[in-house]
Amino acid sequence: MMSSMRSHISATEGAGKPRGGERPDRVLAQPFSGWTHKTMTDSIDDFLKASKLDDYAHYIRKGAFLAQSKAAFPKDRERSDGLTLEPTERHYLDLEYSTRKIDTFKQPWRLYILIACCSLGAAVQGMDETAVNGAQIYYQEAFGIAGKDGWIGLLNGAPYLCCALSCWLNYPLNRLLDRRGVIFLTCFISSATCLGQAFPQTWKQLFLARFLLGFGIGPKSATIPIYAAECAPANVRGALVMMWQMWTAFGIMLGYIAGVVLAGVRDGNNPEICIVDPKNANYHRSMLLTARCSLNWRLMLASPMVLPLIVVAYVYCLPESPRWLLMRARQGNKAKYEEAFLSLCKLRHTKLQAGRDLFLINHLLKGEEEITRNNKPFTELFTLGRNRRALTASVIVMFLQQFCGVNVTAYYSSSILVQYAGFSNRNALLVSMGFGIINFLFAIPAIWTIDTFGRRNLLLSTFPFMALFQILMCIAFRFRKGSNAQTVIAILAMYLFGVAYSPGEGPVPFVYSAESMPLYNRDFGMGIVTSVLWFFNFFLSITWPKFVTAFTASGAFGWYACWCVIGWWMILLFVPETKDLTLEQLDQVFQISTREHAAHGLSQLMWFIRRYMFRRRGIKKPIFIHKEDPDEVYMTGGSGYEEVEEEKSVGASTGVMMH
């Protein structure tokens, strides 16, 4: 594998065929390392014979040697076998190897269309979260459940209860259907069930429609990041895969906007128009369910149906995952070899790059088949130390995405502002819309920083501010209801929390979870961690109404402020950095024991305090230096000039330290 390739989430990266007696977690990410020219030539010939891709043999042969080493075609001398690069091929390879970050984003337009179209499927999740935020102000009156906190929480959390179950379908659905097939099916379900939310006449009917929506969100949330990863090149994979969360934030913003725009439809903001007989409460509720009085919240709940319809219409115009096609080809459908190559041609600038990735993916799939034949990928997630530590770190970041309290604002901000801060319905919706816009805009910087500053560093930098602004929310609700001080502080705290959350805990969990899992059990791992995410999403949504009643708004926000503090320590001690690491380095990182990682995290904290609080400049950063054996690692520290030591140390730029 090219030494410049990063691990990120690539399904084209992973294990080659394991050497005798080697455990799956020891398989390295350089499957062609040490191969002779004859070994490479024989392997290429075998692949061409099996795939019958003789028409593309020239590109595959050159690409295979490029997969072995990015220096396979030096500019200053000719190769002995006569293979050369065309000027166009060398130009695009120079872009790929460029150290200028902007060059990594010079990708084929088809790739960006694929990412944009598929990520629209994520927007329905975010849009539903915030569409129900405004709709609940009205439908709880219509269904006669105002003040019944348990029922309101159950309705809001119904899709995510289903997601916690439906995520387990990720593995069989991806084996039965292709990646595009799963996306098509789940987006169709999302659209149909969102439309179904517009017609219920009882809260039980609404619960059923929202529960079924979970079948359209759960498997999709695990499949879209994998599909994007398998199609994206390694040098920009982190930025493109985080589009899932980016478009989720976009959907959150659209949901808030829909709430503001649709609130006044058919006099929905005028409760007097629906009061026909104030002495007859049942008759009053029946009138609230008429089109004149309830069209606003029905349209809010149905509004997310449009975005997944776009995906349904266009997903089969996109290239299929090359890895999935090669997997089918290796199972006997030889025609899929050519489809995989043509798919890569659409997603790469040159046929040379397509041939390189095709040969590499095929080789790694061969290694994966060997691993899965001799081992049980699902059980190894829990039994092998490397996999167990990756799963633990992934579960932590997914859990904290919910328990930092962000979805309290996403689901309930409007009702909180109305009930506890004295806002009018419309003003509450407008303030909530501002949060949605901030949540989207401040996720944009993560496109750049997630692959430069690093995943772990983004989390460590933002969690203290998230805790601070949740505490500010606690203070806001200690003021007199409806006072100017309460209004200003509540809005300021809500918006600043969105600023801190959006570039860190927002995009990192899905990127981190997928890339930390080994190739051979990635489907299993993503199914588990997304199930954890949705379970705690449901848990938060169903418990908040009772929680805020029992502990008051101030105490409830204080609870999530505490979790932000706890989360910072969990990340420091148990979540290693994964950006800019090859899979070989990633295996080494997760091979290190939890105790050693925790000790290293504490040493990082002490370095940070001495360097930035006590202004001691001559202190060397504690870093892990990885030796050839994944078990042979040691931590450096002491005195010295940190700038010099960072450049000398292996992995110093990987982010496995606190900046």
TrEMBL record:
Pfam families: Sugar_tr. The chain crosses the membrane at residues 151-169, 181-200, 206-228, 240-263, 390-408, 428-450, 457-479, 485-503, 524-544, 556-575. One of its GO terms (molecular function) is transmembrane transporter activity. Residues 114-579 form the Major facilitator superfamily (MFS) profile domain. One of its GO terms (biological process) is myo-inositol transport. One of its GO terms (cellular component) is membrane. It is found in: Membrane. Residues 1-27 are annotated as: Disordered. Keywords: Membrane, Transmembrane, Transmembrane helix, Transport. It is a multi-pass membrane protein. InterPro entries: MFS_dom (IPR020846), MFS_sugar_transport-like (IPR005828), MFS_trans_sf (IPR036259), Myo-inositol_Transporter (IPR050814), Sugar/inositol_transpt (IPR003663). Residues 1-10 have a biased composition (Polar residues). Belongs to the major facilitator superfamily. Sugar transporter (TC 2.A.1.1) family. This is MFS myo-inositol transporter. The lineage of its organism: Eukaryota, Fungi, Dikarya, Ascomycota, Pezizomycotina.
